[in-house]
Specification:
By secondary structure, the chain is mainly beta. It contains 4 helices and 15 strands.
Length: 209
């Protein structure tokens, strides 16, 4: 899964990488994001490939009546790409594709069977490059919300996210526009060829009681 990620590049670097314009330069800062706080993060939506805007992490489907109550029960930060077309929370949004812009994400490796000993890892693209995770968005009242798609972990991520063996659907640069234009989901199930670097951030396992 993916509940924490970072975007540490400046506005010029982000715009050049994605050949798009930031909607609000004054409101753009490199940040680390905790999904459970439902932060606003930069995305590119398929209704305007030339615009980078902020959207709230955690998809809100149209059937939600009480946002606070819904958020207390579920977060919809992630969606499994293998089932997203079948589930009521997501199937109405499968044509609402987006790119979630990131420079790294975080995952915890379990060092025991119950997850009481964990080591935090930072995972990034080779060369410290910006990358995009595949997402779906929904327009809810006056806001845009989104979810990050996940898939079966590749070899590296399976050793780190060893509890569930999942990873975000990270797109190759040449796949980004194709994803936004609606290529079938099945094409993006296999992320075995994605090259990533992982750095442990804790010398000793974090012990949780």
């Amino acid at each position: 899964m993916c509940y924490h990620f970072q975007q540490h590049k400046n506005s010029k670097q982000v715009q050049l990488r994605f050949n798009a314009t930031l909607e609000d330069l004054d409101d753009f800062l490199p940040e680390s994001y905790n999904g459970f706080a439902h932060p606003l993060t930069p995305i590119i939506m398929n209704d305007n490939l030339g615009l980078i805007k902020k959207a709230e992490w955690g998809l809100l489907p149209s059937f939600v009546k009480d946002v606070n109550s819904f958020r207390n029960k579920t977060n919809l930060l992630n969606a499994k790409i293998e089932t997203v077309e079948k589930l009521p929370s997501f199937r109405n949004y499968v044509d609402n594709r987006c790119l979630v812009i990131a420079s790294s994400f975080y995952e915890w490796k379990w060092n025991d069977a119950k997850g009481k000993l964990k080591i935090k890892h930072q995972i990034s693209a080779t060369g410290d490059e910006l990358f995009a995770m595949a997402g779906l968005y929904a327009e809810f009242e006056d806001k845009v919300t989104y979810t990050i798609l996940t898939t079966e972990a590749n070899e590296l991520m399976a050793t780190i996210h060893n509890s569930k063996k999942r990873m975000p659907v990270i797109l190759q640069k040449e796949e980004e526009e194709l994803w936004l234009k609606g290529e079938p989901f099945e094409i993006y199930h296999n992320r075995k060829g994605i090259e990533l670097l992982a750095k442990p951030l804790d010398d000793l396992p974090l012990q949780l009681f």
